[in-house]
Amino acid sequence: MKFMKLGTRPDTFYTEQATRTVASDLPVDLVIKIDDFTYLLHKSPLLSKCGLLQRLCSDSRESESVSIELHDLPGGADAFELCAKFCYGISINISAHNIVSALCSAKFLQMNDSTEKGNFVGKLEAFFSSCILEGWKDSIVTLQTTDMLPEWPENLGITRKCIDSIVEKVLTPPSQVRWSYTYTRPGYTQKKHHSVPKDWWTEDVCDLNIDLFRCIIMAIRSTYVLPPQLIGEALHVYAYKMLPGITKLKSSGTSASSQAEESKKNRKILETIVSMIPADRGSVSVGFLLRLLSISSHVSVSPVTKTELIKRASIQFDEATVRDLLYDQNFYDIELVLAVSESFLKLWKRMFSGAVDNRNFLRSIRNVGKLIDCYLQVVARDDNMPVSKFVALAETVPAIGRLEHDDLYQAINFYLKVHPDLSKADKKRLCQILDCQRLSPEVRAHAVKNDLLPLRTVVQLLYFEQDKSSKVTTTSHKLQKPHELVKKTPATRDSLGKQTSDQEKEEVLTRGTSLNESREKGRHKTKRSDGKLALELKRKMVIRGDSEEKRTEKGSGVKEEGNLDPKKTIQRVRSNKSEHGREKGR
Description:
This protein is mainly alpha-helical. Among the domains are: 3-132, Potassium Channel Kv1.1, Chain A (2-Layer Sandwich), CATH 3.30.710.10; 384-469, no CATH class. It has 26 helices and seven strands. The strands form two sheets. Strands 2-3-5-4-6 form a five-stranded mixed β-sheet, with helices on one face. A two-stranded antiparallel sheet has the order 1-7. A hairpin with a 2-residue loop joins strand 2 (13-16) and strand 3 (19-22). The protein is elongated, with a radius of gyration of 42 Å.
């Protein structure tokens, strides 16, 4: 960073009993009071360069001591001391850190060339134009310091000139960037990279307060030079730098007044960032939108801002990952995920119905279905997760959004393990969202042996297995009849051109008859295998029914709803077993 040195005399200012004075043989004849500071100085060096002090002391005699109060001087005591030292010829350094306060104070004291040639204001303005505005970090730091003086920098044009300088450098092609900048992305070092990254400017700009940052971003957007993704990257960097994480928001131990002030500040930052997000899809990631949405619940943003975030997140919801739905790795908000999922479904239905090519829309809804099921597997491990919220989120995915129910089964299985005391009604409600016909053979085999599932679900799985086996067996036995084979066989000709003889036809018929006999034997075997499968089904139901009866309360006469009554089925199976044993004994 650049600086300007003025004056040659050593610094002779010192503090004595809450006053600041300068070592001199001359008697003090000028007293300046600024806030809580008192300066004991001399008229001669100050009045010659300060037009304001000349006017205020014009009515006093030359030998008379004058006391002046300058409580409204911009920059306060520090800025005034720079001006006073310049008047005494004491060495001072001007840089981006103090030029704003020095220039505003010098303007206030009327230290311009009309008062004395080569005065303080002229030197400061020349340094500001030739050095500060030409540098990248000098412009950033100078703009930062304008925040300490609300009106003066704006009225003097300092703020606008700094913003224009910064925007001009941001729009410079990366290949022409010659100044130093801050870039601390993981895995990036300037020594290993000869080319300047496109977002080289984002980290330095994010040091500004939210109002100045907004001025920079809106000025850049108005030029339409940079793509929306670069604007989104700057917003992303600023949010991660200025907004606290969920962990900090939840565990804040400060006082109520401090929390309210911090919440107000964070709310302003978040709402301003949301208002600057480009409308283009993909300008910011869905993970970034979901993070802003999670923070919004803790800083009480306006309903308009929250609705806008839900809408923007739902547009890109099919691009999200489970990590995006988990905030700070430990916290999650199923209500927000449910809101975004429902908004996505409404948008998807509206666009899907009018689409010519539905392949992309099918892919998006299935991506969301996979996302929701994997997310449910994570939140199912929470002891405090109610069944109603779990089921509500699972039901936001339409049937077309799940090709298989394997991931949903895993989520239900995790939930049942973590919640062993779940009532029968809640278990039934939970398992109603599961489609047994959409489970893979491996998962179905696991589910049949899963003691956590309600008996009704297991019975459905077993019946589905039997029905599927019967259909496969029936399909495999649909062969052609022998006489149809003979009718459909065309008369062939041998190499001599003769038609097939009657003897050859009889051989074909004989082969068909033997094929029919082998099919009849296969049917008898199939019937025996079906009988074995039914018996095995009954045995499993008996075992499962016994274990279910042990878990129920004594004297309970409550029956499962539906067409199948487990107790009656178990009794029927037991009576069949006893009859089968008596027949075997005979």
